[in-house]
Write a structure and sequence with these properties.
Layout lengths: L17 H15 L9 H83 L29 H35 L4 H5 L6 H42 L3 E4 L2 E4 L20 H14 L15 H13 L21 H7 L1
Antiparallel strand pairs: 1-2
Helix pairs in contact: 2-3, 3-5
Keywords: Coiled coil
Protein name: Putative phage associated protein
Length: 349
């Protein structure tokens, strides 16, 4: 093929009277670089500006004209070459397209060869060949095959063997991991699936520790539940025992009442049908009530007494109402104080 050969003669541009041109520019610049515009000379100032612009335009126009002349040769050459090589460019693109199609076809053949080899090797280990769909593309380069382009090199086959073997070992290790988790869950009576999913973000050791922690937590919850049930049974047994110890009573609202009595007010002991409970009966009722009572409120009460007699009266009144010291109330801060009148006490309160 004949290559393009070009003879280029560099263009020559000669500026006539170069030194005189440069000298004239310097003189003009020197003359007008400190020029001052005034109101009295504004008409002349505008004329000076017009003359300077005219000089600058003449120089610029000459520069543009010479540049076009110099560029025309290059533009003509570029247009000529572009026109001549256009058919050649078309041939190159066609051949390049054919080469690419051929290489893609060869690559597809090599990929089929690799996939077939992997499928056979994977079947030996009972593995799904689709596990290697992303990795088989790493072995389809021309350098991985013999000169015929379709036969795998021994080194390539060994790499593929190692890849499949490694995957088999990984699968076996995963099965052992799953077995360890399932075994631990079976021992504790727990479902294994939630913990198997944890393997995406945790190691086997971490998952097993999580299983143990969850088991301990659930066991603690179960112990609390059983303790509550046991306490409830014991409470019921106490009620049954109390009923057995007082067969003359029946249970209404958690209190024991004479079988022959009518309904009564458990707070006052008043028999609603008439009459009054005996002192022993009231104490029995109160004892059962206290055994079942659950306290849900409390308050702090500050009481002022005139003397010890009044204090004892207050204490006895509490006992009559079912409040016993150190059983359902306590006293803190009991002390003697300076005597106060009723008015002083009311002001203090």
């Amino acid at each position: 093929m004949q290559e393009l050969q070009v003879s280029v003669t560099q263009a020559q541009v000669e500026i006539l009277d170069r030194e005189l041109f440069e000298q004239n520019i310097k003189e003009v610049v020197t003359k007008y670089q400190n020029y001052t515009v005034t109101a009295s000379t504004i008409k002349d100032d505008k004329q000076v500006l017009a003359d300077l612009r005219k000089l600058f335009k003449q120089i610029s126009d000459e520069r543009i004209k010479i540049k076009k002349v110099l560029s025309k040769t290059a533009d003509d050459f570029n247009e000529y070459i572009t026109e001549q090589v256009e058919p050649l460019d078309g041939v190159i693109k066609k051949i390049a397209k054919d080469v690419k199609e051929f290489e893609d076809h060869q690559k597809a053949l090599r990929l089929d060869t690799v996939k077939g080899y992997i499928t056979n090797k994977a079947s030996e280990y009972m593995l799904d060949p689709r596990l290697f769909d992303e990795k088989d593309l790493e072995y389809v380069k021309a350098g991985d095959f013999m000169a015929d382009g379709v036969t795998l090199k021994k080194a390539t086959m060994k790499s593929l063997d190692d890849m499949v073997t490694f995957e088999f070992q990984k699968q076996e290790e995963y099965k052992k991991t799953i077995s360890a988790i399932s075994g631990q869950c079976a021992e504790y009576g727990m479902t294994d699936q939630p913990y198997i999913r944890m393997l995406k973000d945790m190691t086997l050791v971490e998952v097993l520790e999580q299983i143990k922690a969850d088991y301990a937590f659930e066991k603690q919850k179960e112990e609390v539940r059983l303790a509550q049930e046991r306490a409830e049974r014991e409470r019921e047994e106490v009620l049954v025992q109390q009923e057995n110890e007082h067969p003359e009573f029946r249970t209404i609202l958690g209190c024991h009442i004479d079988e022959e009595t009518q309904e009564f007010d458990p707070e006052t002991g008043e028999i609603l049908g008439g009459g009054q409970l005996s002192q022993n009966q009231q104490e029995a009722v109160r004892g059962v009530e206290n055994g079942l009572k659950r306290y849900t409120q409390k308050m702090t009460l500050e009481v002022y007494f005139a003397d010890t007699k009044e204090k004892d009266y207050f204490k006895n009144s509490l006992a009559d109402l079912g409040f016993e010291y150190k059983k359902n109330y306590t006293v803190q801060g009991y002390q003697r104080i300076e005597p106060l009148t009723q008015v002083e006490l009311e002001m203090k309160l």
